[in-house]
Amino acid sequence: MLKNFEIDKNRDTLYPDLACYQMDIATMASRAVEDGADEELLPSWSKFATDPMKSKGFFTYMLQALFDGKHDALELDVEYQVGEIADRRVAMMFIASANNENLMKTAQIADRALPGYTVITLCGHKENRINGQRVTNRNSQQLVNEIIEESETNVLVLSNQMAARSFSIPEITELYLAYDNGDNGATVQKMSRTLTPSNSSSKVGRVFSLSFDPNRDDKFDSMIMEAALKVKKEDEDIVSAMRRVLQSIDIFRSSQDGAKLFDEAEFIKQSMARNGLSRVMGKVADISSIPTEVAISLSEGTIDVARMTKVMKSSKGKTYAEKAERKKNNKRDLSHEKMIARVREMITTIVENMDIIIFGTGESNVQSALTFVEENNLQDAVEEQFGCEFDLIRFVFDTGIIKQDWIDIRMQVA
Amino acid sequence: MNRMYCYLWSEDDAECKFGQRWVKSGLDPQTDCEKRVRESLGVRKDIFPDIRARGIQVWDVTDFAKSVKMFDMKAKVDDHIRKHIGFRKGTTGEVHTISQDSMSIRVSKFLSENGQALISAGLSTDQYEQAEKVVDAYNNGSRTILSELCARFGKTIWSSAVATETEQELVIVASYVKTVFASFASDIARFEQFKEYVHVDTGEEDYQKKIRQAFKDGKKVFAYLSLCGGKKRQERLDFLFSLRKRRMLIIDEADFGAHTENQSLPLQDARKKSDFILIMTGTNSDRAASTWNVDFMTSKTYPELLVSKKAA
Predict the structure, then answer these.
(1) Touching check for B53 and chain A: CB below 8 Å?
(2) A251 forms bridges with which residues in the sheet?
(3) Residues A178 and A291 in one domain
(4) pLDDT by residue (tens digit) across A121-164?
(5) Which ipTM did the prediction report?
(6) CA dist B65 → A78, A122, B61, B194 (Å)
């Protein structure tokens, strides 16, 4: 219990609500071609980002459908989907895979497609100026604010990476994610740009995931599952925890008949089918206190258990920094980041495949299944399946890097 | 009982407006002051939501008004206070030519020095629970804690609450993002729980003098340290970590610049074993913690906040 502070329940109500929409934009690509656009059907955002001029018919159609309700595409008409006509629309779109050059071109296309909009480009391209100033992460919020205040038009802010953090503009109520896949943490940061409170508790931040294949679009899965893993009570199953989270966030699928709220069971089933749970477990596993030596072993899939157990026990005071060579420049240590990413991949693989061991051994839990493998000398078969040493699998469970109840959760939904 | 309140708001970073409101018994002071601000906007009421989002700050100045014999609906307590603050635009208006953050810090300091109890800071359910966890971890021996807290969580007041609960005498707020300093000080200076703290920007020439003076006066210190490279950064680190005080280092936006070895290694070299380290980030906790040996980690996502909102 804290000595100097009390809970103020009113503060719990200040967070803007969040509504997420999955939008299928594949039809727009084919419609643009049917109407004479000389371009290929687009299978992905990364292709668009590589050469936006090649796909300007699609992009123009999509923007006009989203913001002006044109091209007989009710499933993309945002005002129709949301059920509200806004006095003024202030939207932000992240096209994460576009480089600065191509983002500038994309902005030109958008500018021509949406005459009633002021299109603002946020990137560090040398020719990108707002009110005569070069755009940087530091001044982007102020520059966008100035335009919103000075003009009375609708506004569309386009960005690739800039302004994904510390960028708080209360007027932004629509946030578009125009990329495939993407890191979960970065996606959540981008989504947060529509969550700056504007007034009391009435604001709803709306996030639109523009996807060429909504059935495989997992941008919202990780967010829901991560929250579910964390709010899950001890004796609660994961599905029930996900249901609780889904009662706080609306997730819609856009359709010709308007936005359809995902049935909780349907969303859970689909997200499980996309196999997102293991990835989220890989992401949320607490590896922050693992000593470097152990992390390296995990990333390589090999381990000297006796030695690493000692290292784990004496980890206090042992830092990554002590291992790392001090650099003269200021660049990020990408080798470290890659190594950590591999550790998380390894954890994901183990979580994902543990059901094979449990089902295969006929045991009911992790520990007895691992013991069965040892007693029957089946380590080689397991190593072949997992791509890492058997001892490493035991090690991550014995040390709590992977929680055993996560496997129970995986088994519940398998 | 009726009470006297002062309020502060701004449209931009260059100027702010400081006024007063006689709040009648039974009315919510924040709402009543906001009503007054809205009325004063005349035909520009359309900008009220922006102003509100920026933050309309209020102070209960009842005790102070009584102490200077101005506890009266018609008394100009705001004018009395503004005389001591300075930066008034013109000779009669309510506008001050400094940012709202700077003005807020000055008003809080003035009131606190003149015996007025400040308003009490409350925490949201999630802030409270996270603070409890982290304080427990420190009490159980952890010294380096990583907190991955989503956007809108309210990291400023939360981390300050952790510092207060763990009875820190010197709190060093280090960041690569320069705007962190003003918002940090402004956010917490108006709350009663932080009134013992003096805020010092180590970018100022006489920061050492100010810090020494604060300790001499029996106060505690929030010292703001820019992680941007430069000759003076090491000098500031040497000074701050040479003081024999119970000390906490808060690294804000730790995955943004602050995680690079050039920024984080000098901090690690400077820290003493007993120092409390709180690494805060909104995302990319792996990157934020990449050069630190973390004893304990905690995190909170936005959907979790919405679960609490629904429960409230």
Answers:
(1) yes
(2) A20
(3) no
(4) 999 999 999 988 999 987 898 899 889 888 889 999 999 989 88
(5) 0.82
(6) 53, 49, 6, 22
**pLDDT (tens digit, 9 = 90+) per residue, A335-385?**
777 788 888 888 888 888 888 888 889 988 888 999 999 999 998 988 888
| Chain A residue with minimum CA distance to B142 | A316
Interval A63-80: pLDDT, tens? 999 999 999 899 999 999
Residue A23 within any structural domain of the chain: yes
Cα–chain-centroid distance for residue A329? 31
Nearest CB partner across the interface for A248, out of B154, B261, B306: B306
Q: Domain span at residue A211? A: 13-274
| A8 with B122: Cβ contact below 8 A | yes
Tokens of B179: 């705007």
Output the pLDDT for position B220: 96
Neighbours of A243 (CB within 10 A): 16
**pLDDT confidence of B256, banded at 50, 70, 90?**
low
> 3-class DSSP state for residue B299?
strand
DSSP A255-274: -TT--EEPPHHHHHHHHHHT
| Shortest Cα–Cα distance, B92 to chain A (Å) | 28
The verdict on A207 and A140 lying in the same domain is: yes
Q: Nearest CA of chain A to the CA of B50: how many Å? A: 7
B 157-186 residues inside an 8 A Cβ radius of A = 161, 164-165, 177-179
Among candidate residues A376, A362, A368, the one with its CA nearest the CA of residue A404: A368
Q: What b/e sequence results for A7-23 when a residue is b if at least 16 CB atoms lie within 10 Å of its CB, and e otherwise?
A: bbeebbebbbbbbbbbb
Topology annotation, domain B125-311: Rossmann fold (3.40.50)
Query: Nearest CA of chain B to the CA of A248: how many Å?
Result: 5
| CB proximity A178 to B under 8 Å | no
Q: Using one digit for the tens of pLDDT, what is the confidence trace for B9-46? A: 998 878 999 999 999 998 988 889 999 999 988 888 77
Position A183 in a domain: yes
CA atoms within 13 A on the CB side of A202: 5
All residues of chain B having their beta carbon less than 8 Å from the beta carbon of residue A243 are none
- Say yes or no for a CB contact (<8 Å) between A170 and B53: yes
What total number of domains does chain A contain?
2
Q: Do B284 and A289 touch (CB under 8 A)?
A: no
- Asked if A321 has any chain B CB less than 8 Å from its own CB, the reply is yes
C-alpha distance from A43 to closest chain B C-alpha (Å) = 29
Question: d(Cα A162, Cα A152) in Å, to the nearest integer?
Answer: 24
Backbone CA torsion sign across A168, A169, A174, A175: negative
Boundaries of every domain in chain B: 3-113, 125-311
pLDDT of the residue at B157: 93
Taking the CA of residue B243 and the nearest CA in chain A, the distance in Å comes to: 23
Interval B178-218: pLDDT, tens:
667 777 888 888 899 998 999 999 989 999 999 999 999 99
pLDDT score of A170: 85
- Strands A133-134 and A154-159 come out as unpaired
- In b/e form, how buried is each residue of B147-186, taking b as 16+ CB within 10 angstroms? bbbbbbbbbbbbbbbbbbbbebbbbbbbbbbeebbbebbb
Determine, for residues B303 and A287 on separate chains, whether the beta-carbon distance falls below 8 Å. no
Looking at every residue in chain B, the average pLDDT score rounds to 89
Q: Is B290 helix (H, G, I), strand (E, B) or coil?
A: coil
Quote the pLDDT of residue B70: 93
In B, minimum Cα distance to A138 occurs at B177
Residue A2 covered by a domain? no
